[in-house]
Specification:
The protein is mainly β. It has three domains: 82 residues, Elongation Factor Tu (Ef-tu), domain 3 (Beta Barrel); 87 residues, no CATH class; 108 residues, Immunoglobulin-like, CATH 2.60.40. The strands form five sheets. Strands 1-8-4-5-6-3-2-7 form an eight-stranded antiparallel beta sheet, with no helix packed on it. It has a five-stranded antiparallel beta sheet with strand order 11-12-13-14-15, with no helix packed on it. α3 runs antiparallel to α4. The longest helix has 16 residues. The model has no long low-confidence stretch (mean pLDDT 86).
Length: 373
């Protein structure tokens, strides 16, 4: 005997408001029993297509309920045939495909390093990413992505490895904005125009149509130069723009500072300070470097004079022509001194007095000049 499958579902009760689309079940098992497309309301002669089955006790109707409000009342849901379901599903799918997007995609001819992209409704084209774009898309994480960006971020590459058409060897040719590692011989660098080995970090900044800046940093010292044109055709000289304040001062062969701003030191001969601009000052407090007057008992006209005293400078000047020396604080109101000769590394002094004296008094000495010319 044939078994007839039920054509309706009516277990439990249902509540629905007049003109409402939400149906709430009591004692119902709608989930996996009722499907979207089935009809609620055949018990009232007002079938309404079910839009969604939300749970065992919740339905959403496709249209407002016209059968009048009912609360925990008997109801009936009529099943729709599988054939009808398939037809409706196919219709909905075809409706979605009628936008032209599928046809537009089918017309594209794939190639390496290409990404489909919409150019309008139902219109597509291929975006050329290039090898660099493919590498960025394939990056595993943010750090890997930044590393792929080259001069725009991540680890700074050498110019010839940045993928922007530059080559190593000449600072004048590094005009693409970005950050770069410098680790080979270059011309037109901070030392001179000749090829010199550099190790450091270069930042290139460009303002459209106005100018270009290069900042090179090596160790704790930074240099900068500027071109009034955005193509780097009129560079100024390199200038130190950042350096540690106190340390060892130094200069390159072109006379440009390469070290600290101020150098301070002392030894048995006295104390000194050097500045990055080449200025040097030496001084000897009383007793340093055996700076004592000796007896001022040698006649010198109406005055008296002591022996020549030589001060070995705590640090040498570049040459004698840059330095001058003087005596300060001769420890007596009757005495004064003068420098009678100075070389790069020594200075000679004599003490004068208005009275004869056998006292050997200390005096202070001072010298100023240049450590670099």
């Amino acid at each position: 005997m044939a078994v007839l499958l039920p054509s309706v579902y009516k277990d439990g009760t249902a509540t629905v408001a007049a003109n409402g689309v939400a149906v709430t079940g009591q004692g119902t098992m709608w989930l996996n029993t009722v499907l979207p497309g089935d009809f609620f309301g055949t018990h009232k002669g007002s079938p309404n297509r079910i839009l969604a089955v939300n749970s065992n006790t919740s339905l959403t109707l496709a249209y407002p309920w016209l059968g009048g409000a009912q609360a925990t009342a008997a109801y009936e849901i009529m099943y729709q045939s599988d054939t009808a379901r398939m037809q409706e599903t196919a219709r909905q799918l075809l409706e979605k495909l009628s936008s032209g997007n599928v046809d537009a995609f089918a017309e594209l001819i794939g190639a390496a390093d290409r990404i489909p992209t919409f150019t309008g409704p139902g219109a597509m084209d291929l975006l050329v990413t290039g090898a660099k774009g493919r590498q960025i898309l394939a990056s595993a994480d943010l750090i890997a992505t930044l590393a792929m960006l080259g001069p725009a971020g991540g680890y700074a590459p050498q110019p010839q490895s940045a993928g922007v058409g530059m080559v190593n060897g000449d600072f004048n040719n590094l005009i693409y904005p970005g950050d770069y590692t410098i680790a080979s011989a270059y011309t037109n660098g901070v030392t001179s125009a000749a090829s010199t080995s550099y190790s450091g970090f270069l930042e290139v900044r460009v303002r459209t149509g106005v100018g270009m800046w290069q900042t090179f940093t090596s160790g704790q010292v930074s240099w900068e130069r500027y071109s009034a044109t955005s193509d780097g055709s009129s560079w100024t000289a390199w200038q130190v723009v950042d350096s540690y304040t106190v340390g060892t001062v130094s200069r390159n062969t072109a006379g440009e500072p390469t070290g600290a701003i101020i150098e301070r030191g002392s030894n048995a001969n006295g104390e000194y300070v050097r500045y990055a601009d080449g200025t040097q000052i030496c001084w000897a407090p009383a007793g340093s470097g055996s700076l004592t007057s000796g007896a001022t008992d040698g006649p010198a006209g109406p005055l008296f004079i002591g022996p020549t005293k030589t001060w070995t400078l705590p640090i040498a000047f570049s040459n004698a022509s840059t330095a001058i020396g003087m005596v300060t604080n001769p420890r007596s109101s009757n005495r004064w001194g003068t420098c009678i000769g100075i070389s790069a590394s020594t200075a000679n002094f004599r003490i004068f007095s208005t009275v004869t004296s056998a006292s050997d008094l200390a005096f202070d000495a001072f010298a100023i000049g240049r450590w670099f010319v």
